[in-house]
UniProtKB/TrEMBL annotation:
Key words of the record: Disulfide bond, Glycoprotein, Ion channel, Ion transport, Ligand-gated ion channel, Membrane, Receptor, Signal, Transmembrane, Transmembrane helix, Transport
Biased composition (Basic and acidic residues): 906-921
Record-annotated membrane-spanning stretches: 594-614, 656-680, 836-860
Species annotation: Kalanchoe fedtschenkoi
Known role: Glutamate-gated receptor that probably acts as non-selective cation channel.
Lineage: Eukaryota, Viridiplantae, Streptophyta, Embryophyta, Tracheophyta
Protein name, per record: Glutamate receptor
Length: 933
């Protein structure tokens, strides 16, 4: 037995020696204690919860054998007391005690300061509550945010604003790093959705009730009613208290609070002053989302025991910052474990230098740099673990993966979850993890949020804006026209306006759900029509709040302002002089162009000639003396135009060809008849111009209305030389210039909008619109970009159209006495060859194939009847050609059936009966009328 004890002792010694050698080769032994610092405000809502959570986490880590493997965490807690200066002092004290990392920097302001110290001393700074997005920049490499950044919270708010179709919000924020940087991100996220922050109400960090009152009064005087509150937890409730006093928590307002409000409700819901929740009714807030799990449920069940240890914390609720603080300790513990596994040393280097400020010496020799800081930071960024909030790992940008938020609505004595937001699926009513890996559906038919109880205890979505309550009227620019004053004009001796556009505007205002104070300001010198583009530009520069009148909605103007729904259709047209066309001797030739007449005549002759060739050998009616056959062929050709041909066609190819030709004749004659009827029964107007194309090509001067956008369109789009354009300022000037024409210093045509020209032409019968309109647009009222009034006015204009009121206003101002020649129309277009080219091609192809088949048959018959002699002399070729021509010309005999048919139909012939008897053996088919073919 003693022998075995001796052997065992030797083996143990060898093992210890090998282990020592191996450890000496790999590095030093793990320390028994790892020092970490904790810096936060102990008397704050977040700080109270965080301290309890961190204490519990350190205890759990130290009691777990799976983490740190014997090394114990020792956390040193220091109170920063809401002070950046105190944060600096406490951070320096940590580095005097060989601290490997710091948990804390509760506020973003303190985090900015301590991060500089962390960079210098290479101590990772892990924060569960400093959510300022700029802290994750390259400026602070040793700062690690272990909660969700405000970058994603502001994106969630922007998505909510866009979801409810609001365009402007007011930002109420603390004017420090936390507030400014968060609101800057919100501005960018709103801009991505074509929304904006219309007003920023900045508050001092040490804000007072008077400061908040002054800021909210200015907000109430503005137009936006969507308010985003981004302030620290300590001053948030004071904002709503003042808002309730100013009656800004009623119907029509939208309040969106960032995560500070959900933190208060989670932590102090049961200890809030009486009536506090009543002042928060209808507010929307966000809360960082964490997946439900067994770990989370277990920790929540422990919370009452953890807070019950101290009676003063017995009513302290668990907020999301407490959950993230707990996970932060575990994250750091796993990173330290990986740090030690890789041989990381717990060693520090003294700064060893002093800094002088004036005559005072600052001794910094006690501070030390953590030599393993870079390695520990790398291990922290590489963490991939599961905490009570779910999976924990970092993106390349330093943010936690899968950011998500809950959307809360304060109702009654608590709040309800109305939906979720995640950077993967946007808004949804199902938890984000259920949508991971599924195709995202952003369709409006998919429910994105549950119903909200808005301030004022209403379920109706607030409009989100009102007219500014500052006593100022809307300054509306009105063009001071000198022509077409039916559309808009100033009443002499007053500051009032009248006209079609004014009536439409006032009628639309009556349908608005709220009063709109306004005043009209004329724009123009009263001598020339003003440029509507310049008027629109003055809205962009802020001179006018809106503009009404005959303002065409064109591309360059839509880049400057927003337009309402068009209240009248318009578009550019060409107006030119026209003259009446009376029927004359040769009117019957007008339906066809000269080319059409020529091709039709040629095909008549060609078809007649082909039919003669096909019928000459078998049909006696196409035989006889040469002159007689020419007359017969011509008669047959032209009689087919009236379907009056009397000659019979008996060959199969001839019949097929005739059927095709008669179909062509049917189409051509029907079209001719219809066109001629139109020309003779309707009064015709003639103009050498056919539309904008012929006007551009003519090179003649062109008139346009001064101040109209037609000038820019003709130059920029149609590339017409500016020297050809003549500005005109009144209907009388238009008429005179058109009557004079280019030869007398006038214009060939006038280009303007159809709305003007319909009124202009109603009493001027010698002028007319030629061709088709070449632009399509309308007139609308102009408002600044993203103005909600533009949307409201568009809705009102649509209602006017649906009720018929818009048409009534149109008839009141624009229905003038019609021109007496209203039934007249521009000359009917003559029928051109191109319209019938397909028919002529078919007929031509039929003629070609008929001739080809016919001559193939003739050649085949001739070669069988007169075989070619191999020894024939060259001189006999002419004789053989003569024989072939004679063979083609000779009469071909037909069968007895054709003979009988010919005999029966002989009574209808114009030939002598004896002649029929003599030639009856050859027979013909009697086709005496079109109905027999």
């Amino acid at each position: 037995m003693d022998r075995w004890y001796f052997v065992l002792s030797i083996l143990l010694c060898l093992c210890n020696t090998l282990a020592a050698d191996a450890f000496n080769a790999g590095g030093q032994a793990r320390p028994s204690v790892a020092n970490i610092g904790c810096a936060f405000s102990l008397n704050s809502i977040i700080g109270k919860v965080a301290k309890i959570a961190i204490d519990a986490a350190v205890e759990d880590v130290n009691s777990s054998p799976a983490v740190l493997k014997g090394t114990k965490l020792r956390h040193i807690v220091r109170d920063t007391n809401h002070s950046g200066f105190a944060g600096i002092i406490e951070a320096m004290k940590f580095m005097e005690t060989d601290t490997m990392a710091i948990i804390g920097a509760q506020s973003s302001v303190t985090a900015h300061i301590i991060s500089h110290i962390a960079n210098e001393l290479k101590a990772p700074l892990l924060s569960y509550s400093a959510t300022d997005p700029t802290l994750s920049s390259l400026q602070y490499p040793f700062f690690v945010l272990t909660a969700q950044s405000d970058l994603f919270q502001m994106e969630a708010i922007a998505t909510i604003v866009d979801h409810y179709e609001w365009k402007e919000v007011v930002a109420i924020y603390t004017d420090d790093d936390y507030g400014r940087n968060g609101i800057d991100v919100l501005r960018d996220k709103l801009a991505e959705k074509r929304c904006k922050i219309s007003y920023k109400a900045a508050l001092r960090p040490e804000v007072t009730k008077d400061d908040i009152t002054s800021a909210l009064v200015k907000v109430a005087l503005g137009s936006s009613r969507v308010l985003v509150v981004h302030v620290p937890v300590e001053s948030g409730l004071l904002v709503f208290d003042v808002a309730h006093t100013l009656k800004m928590m009623g119907k029509g307002y939208v309040w969106i609070a960032t995560s500070w409000l959900s933190t208060i409700l989670d932590t102090n819901r049961y200890s809030l002053p009486f009536g506090t929740l009543g002042k928060l009714q209808g507010v929307i807030s966000l809360r960082m989302y964490s997946k439900n799990s067994e770990l989370k449920s277990h920790f929540i069940s422990r919370w009452s025991n953890l807070t019950g240890a101290e009676s003063r914390n017995s009513l302290l609720g668990l907020s999301m910052y407490g959950l993230y603080a707990y996970d932060t300790v575990w994250l750091l513990a796993h990173a330290l474990d990986a740090f030690f596994d890789e041989g990381g040393n717990v060693s520090f280097t003294s700064i060893g230098r002093a800094s002088k400020t004036g005559s005072t010496m600052l001794h910094l020799d006690g501070l030390s740099i953590f030599n393993g800081g870079d390695l520990l930071l790398r291990k922290i960024k590489q963490i991939n673990m599961t905490g009570i909030n779910g999976p924990i790992s970092f993106t390349q940008d330093g943010y936690l993966v899968d950011p998500a938020f809950e959307v809360l609505n304060v109702i009654g004595t608590g709040y309800g979850i109305i939906g979720y937001w995640s950077n993967y699926s946007g808004l949804s009513v199902v938890p984000p993890e259920t949508l991971h890996g599924k195709e995202t559906n952003f369709s409006s038919s998919v429910k994105q949020l549950y119903g909200v109880i808005w301030p004022g205890e209403t379920k109706e979505k607030p409009r989100g804006w009102v007219l500014p309550n500052n006593g100022r009227e809307l300054v509306i620019g009105v063009p001071k026209r000198v022509s077409f004053r039916e559309f808009i004009s100033e009443i002499e001796g007053t500051k009032l306006f009248k006209g079609y556009c004014i009536d439409v505007f006032t009628a639309a205002l009556k349908l608005m759900p709220y009063p709109v104070p306004y005043k009209f300001v004329p724009f123009g010198d009263g001598k020339n029509n003003p440029s509507c583009t310049e008027l629109v530009h003055l809205i962009k520069t802020g001179v006018f709040d809106a503009a009404i009148g005959d303002i065409a909605i064109v591309t360059n103007r839509t880049r400057m302002v927003d337009f309402t729904q068009p209240f009248i259709e318009s578009g550019l047209v060409v107006v030119a002089p026209v003259r009446k066309l009376s029927p004359h001797t040769w009117s019957f030739l007008m339906p066809f162009t000269l080319q059409m007449w020529g091709v039709t005549a040629i095909f008549l002759l060609v078809v007649g000639a082909v039919v003669w060739i096909l019928e000459h050998r078998v049909n006696d009616q196409f035989r006889g003396p040469f002159k007689e056959q020419v007359v017969t062929t011509l008669w047959f050709s032209f009689s087919t135009m009236c379907f009056a041909q009397r000659e019979n066609v008996i060959s199969a190819m001839g019949r097929i060809l005739l059927i095709i030709w008669l179909f062509v004749v049917l189409i051509v004659t029907s079209s001719y008849t219809a066109s001629l009827t139109s020309m003779l029964t309707a009064q015709q107007l003639y103009s050498p111009l056919k539309g904008i194309e012929s006007l551009v090509a003519s090179g003649d001067p062109i008139g346009y209305q001064q101040g109209s956008f037609s000038r820019d369109y003709l130059i920029e789009e149609l590339k017409i030389q500016e020297s050809r354009l003549v500005p005109l300022n009144s209907p009388e000037a238009y008429e005179k210039a058109l009557e004079d024409g280019p030869s007398k210093g006038g214009v060939a045509a006038f280009v303007d909008e159809s709305a003007y020209m319909e009124l202009f032409l109603s009493t001027r019968c010698h002028l007319s619109i030629v061709g088709q309109g070449f632009t399509k647009n309308g007139w609308g009222f102009a408002f600044p970009r993203d103005s909600p009034l533009a949307v409201e006015m568009s809705t009102a204009i649509l209602k006017l159209s649906e009720t018929g009121e818009l048409q009534r206003i149109h008839e009141k101002w624009l229905k003038s006495i019609a021109c007496s020649s209203l039934g007249a129309k521009l000359q009917t277009e003559r029928l051109e060859l191109g319209s019938f080219s397909g028919l002529f091609i078919i007929s031509g192809v039929a003629c070609f194939f008929a001739l080809f088949i016919y001559f193939a048959q003739i050649l085949w018959q001739f070669r069988h009847k007169y075989p070619k002699q191999p020894t024939a002399a060259p001189s006999s070729r002419f004789g053989r050609l003569h024989t072939f021509l004679s063979f083609v010309d000779e009469k071909q005999e037909v069968g007895t059936k054709k003979k009988r048919i010919l005999t029966e139909g002989g009574s209808h012939r114009s030939h002598d009966s004896d002649q029929v008897g003599r030639e009856g053996s050859h027979g013909t088919i009697d086709i005496t009328s079109n109905s027999q073919i």
